[in-house]
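Residues and backbone
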Amino acid sequence: MTGDARGALVLHGFTGNPQSMRGLALALADAGFTVEMPLLPGHGTTVADMVPTRWKDWSDAAEAAYTELAARCDSVAVVGLSMGGSLGVWLAQRHPEIAALVLVNPLVSPPDADTLAFIDAMIDGGDELAPGVGSDIALEGAVESAYPELPLRAVRSLFAAAAELEEGLGAVTSPLLIFTSTQDHVVDPRSSELLVERVKGPVERIVLDRSFHVATLDYDKDEIEVRTVEFVSGLLASTGA
């Protein structure tokens, strides 16, 4: 979606696809931004395609999309949900020139040791898939188009990356807007707390009491879209097409 010289990179979550972020991407496009919303490797087809993918595949794709967008725009904001938020933090650690960072229930800290040990035991026992984590949404009738299964080795690589992200949160200096659902059954809100405590740039935090993890499709989706557009518009100067 081509707009003016302000870019917005929009990143979806683990096992999901751009459907979960479409409303937010359209809101940014309607506000004049040039928007890129890549389909991350292994996503949006069948879960078998995702089984062999790892963090490096997703982060390489995010880096390529950012580099391409930054080459076309004067400034870029990065907007991410869940793992898309993880990738946003990863990019911000490497690109301090990112003008704004908007994260919705991001993952930047791995689960506890017992959970990791349980996943490792499943993998050691020969399991490749577990029940999926998609569509954690409070709003009746709203559905996330995500895989019904969770690729275990892939999620293990995501958790390993989250541990590295946590160690490097102090390298994030981009202005940050973070949305945190108080009832999130996928990502512990502790990740949001860590971001607020450790990043070095200015932080604005909005707590969502009505929405679950996929808040971009939930009760608070309109507020997320309005507040995101306001936040990034205040930080990225409009210089025309």
Remarks:
- The chain has a mean pLDDT of 95.
- The helical segments are 22-30, 47-50, 55-72, 83-94, 113-124, 152-167, 190-198, 221-235.
- Residues 6-235 form a domain with the Rossmann fold fold (CATH 3.40.50.1820).
- The first strand starts at residue 6 and ends at 11.
